[in-house]
Amino acid sequence: MGLLITLLGVVALGAVVLTSFVSVIFYGSMLVVGGVFEMVHAFRIRRTGPFLMFLLGGILSVVVGALVLMRPGAGLVALTLLLAGYFFASGLFRCITSASDRYSGWGWDFAYGIVSLALGAIIFAQMPASSLWALGIVVGVEILSRGISIMAGALMIRSAVHHRHANV
């Protein structure tokens, strides 16, 4: 399983534009499905719970998901802007907290913050072109690292089992 996921990550990184668009289609579809479930849930609790909150939240999810599915390019730009904003804000927060607290190993967190700030700024500065590659790279790296971590975990378990059998 880990090997297959790792290979999928390599394929995703080899086709970052396709990965970006597939991610947007998946995200829009999940918004629609989640919104439908939320509306169904609203009607199931209409007498005992916050009916209107769930109904309106579900409608909003369906509408946004449908818009993303109808205009995947615009959805991709919007998600890329959110991603750039997240990297920038996360990096700024890391830099400020690590520099002000000066805990053990704070320099690594500060460096991580600088990299995150730079990544957010690069993605934002290259908009809208960065929307074609940024989301695909993030998704591809996540899939690749997930596959590698599954394989590493399996090897650790295998080693522990062999070690235990050798000692018994």
From TrEMBL:
Zinc found in the keyword field: no
Membrane-traversing stretches: 50-70, 76-96, 108-127, 133-157
Cross-referenced InterPro entries: Acid_resist_chaperone_HdeD, DUF308_memb
Keywords: Membrane, Transmembrane, Transmembrane helix
Transmembrane is among the record's keywords: yes
Protein name listed in UniProt: HdeD family acid-resistance protein
